Each structure stands twice: as C-alpha cells, then as structure tokens.
Amino acid sequence: MAQAVAEETLINGVDVTALGEKAEALRSDPGLGKSRFRITNRWLGCGRNRSTVAGFHALRQDIPHEQTFELEADEPPVLLGTDEGANPVEYLLHALASCLTTSLVYHAAVRGIHIEEVESTLEGDLDIRGFMGLAPDVRKGYQNITVTFRVKSDAPAAKLRELANFSPVFDVVSHGTKVDLKIETRA
Known about the structure:
Distance between the termini: 68 Å
Mean pLDDT: 94
Shape: globular
Radius of gyration: 20 Å
Helix content: 25-40%
CATH class of the largest domain: Alpha Beta
CATH topology of the largest domain: GMP Synthetase, Chain A, domain 3
Order of helices and strands: HEEHEEEEHEHEHH
Strand content: 25-35%
CATH superfamily of the largest domain: K homology (KH) domain
Number of strands: 8
Structural class: alpha+beta
Largest sheet: 4 strands, antiparallel
C-alpha cells in the first residue's frame, strides 16, 4: 500500500509532495528564496568559448552540482567560427525552451494536470547588422522570438500557457533584466 501512495505523489515525474514542502518552507521563511546562479567562461579563440557550471547558491548555502557541466559555444563558419558548439543566441533559445517546459510541467503537476508529451520549436529573428555595428538603428539582439508548443494533455491550451508564464527565463527575455557589465584589465 505504501508503494501506491508514493506513486500518487508523482505527477509528470514531479514529486508534488516534496515540491509542496519546499513551497511551504519558502512561505514560512521568504529569505530561503534568495538564490544566485553562476558560471565561469573562458575564451578559446576566435568565436569559441567554454562555460563551466559547478554550483549555485540557494536556501542560504552553496550547493555544488553532482557533476561539473561544460557548455561549448562557437559560431558557424558563415560567421567565421569553427562550428564546435551552438552559438550564444541558440543557447538563449535553449534556455528559454527548457525553462518554459520545466515551468509548465512543474506547475501542471502541482495542479494535478497530467501531461503526456511536450515538444517545442523556437525561432528568433535577428539582424546581424546590429551586432556588427553596421546599422545603429538595428537592435543587436533578437527582434522577436516565436515559441510553439505541442502538448499532449487534457488541459486547455490557455491554462497551459498560463502555467508556462511562471518561467524565470521567459520573464528575463520578455521583461528584460538589468545587467551590470564590469571589465577588469590585466597587464
């Protein structure tokens, strides 16, 4: 019988009991919610660079990942790179897709909404003349991003869209976030 009860707490692969306990702890002590995520990055030549993700700060403590993650970035040959990794604007689309998906699945689970499948396609429109400084009136980043989800669930699309809106990356991309850029030089 205990096995059956344990299985009922999993919806969409999410342990809703454990998630509820975390939410209650955050309600009781809002300071636990303050988090800081970090990466380090090293340039490897031309358009290639590598970011390393080793841990983050949450729940008032530094938490190491069980393994260190390395993210390779490069540019395609048409942009003079060696194509040894996705380029940074493609990583942004990946971050947006994965965060929207996770947010949708977790928030659906908490509400008892079962999801069988989620797939998405993202496309971003970017005019490279902005990045190259050739047209000062052209934005350097994406002018528009289109996200199309295909979700197998009994829930209506409007409800699923509402749940995806909890995504932190969607918030950053759609509302902007202040970025403090500091450059230290070395001799």
